[in-house]
Structure formats: C-alpha cells, structure tokens
Amino acid sequence: MTLTFDSIDKAGPCALLVGEAPTNAITHGKGPDGRSSIRLRLHEEDSCVEIEIADSGSGFRPELRELEGHGIGLTQMEALAEQVQGRCGSVSRTRAGPT
After folding, report:
1. pLDDT single digits (tens) 5-22
2. Which residue segment(s) compose the domain that 90 sits in?
3. What is the rounded CA–CA span in Å between residue 81 and residue 68?
4. 36 strand-pairing partners
5. Whole-number Å distance between alpha carbons of 26 and 34
6. Phi then psi dihedrals of residue 75, to 5 deg
7. 53 within a domain of the structure (yes/no)
8. How far apart are CA 59 and CA 56, in angstroms?
9. Please, which residues bridge with residue 50 across strands?
10. In CATH, what number is assigned to the domain containing residue 93?
11. What is the mean pLDDT of residues 36-63?
C-alpha cells in the first residue's frame, strides 16, 4: 500500500494520527494481566484507506470523555482525521477491548 500526499498539510496530520492511535491503544488497552496487546489492520478500497486498531483492554465508558482529562487522545485523533478529510471513530466492547 502506498500513500501519496500532494502537500505536507495532509502528510503531517496523517503521520501523527497513525502514531497516536497505536500509542493510545498500548497505553490504555491493558488486558487483565496488565499487558498490552493490539491488532492493527489496514484496508484500502476505492482510494480510501481504513486503519483499524483493536486492543486487549476492558473497554471504556464513552460518557467519561466529557470529563476533563478523559478521551484526550481520541479527541486529538478525531481532529487530525478532520484535517485530512477523514473520519475517526471508536467502539468500546465490554470484555472484547475497545476498537
């Protein structure tokens, strides 16, 4: 897979996003044994690239994102995705780890 950018305006936010997502998963996605395990999947279709990251954590409560200090990484990733006309979402699955 090759990603081509016509300007640093898109390459910079993409690089930050691709770095922040697994870092966030490793930092906050610890399993019951205290270890982090992540799965990274890249998929390209119709000039669109999808990056999916799943971790071994117990999930999170989406309503906590409204509290100060919670969800900063997710908020940052959403802002970076917007800069490149992309989308960023998260799903928290109980006992399956957030995705």
Report:
1. 666 778 888 888 888 888
2. 8-98
3. 22
4. 30
5. 11
6. -65, -40
7. yes
8. 8
9. 43
10. 3.30.565.10
11. 82
Beta carbons within 8 Å of 40's beta carbon, 6+ residues apart: 22, 51, 52, 53
**End-to-end alpha-carbon separation of the chain, Å?**
22
Q: CB-based contacts of 1: which residues, under 8 Å, 6+ apart? A: 42, 44, 49
Average pLDDT over every residue of 48-52: 83
Each residue of 57-77: pLDDT tens digit?
Answer: 887 777 776 666 667 788 888
Burial category of 76 from C-beta neighbours within 10 Å (exposed 0-12, middle 13-18, buried 19 and up): middle
The number of CA neighbours under 13 Å toward the Cβ of 72 is: 5
Q: Residue 97: pLDDT band by 50, 70, 90 thresholds?
A: very low
Tally the domains of the chain: 1
Strand pairing category for 92-93 and 48-55: unpaired
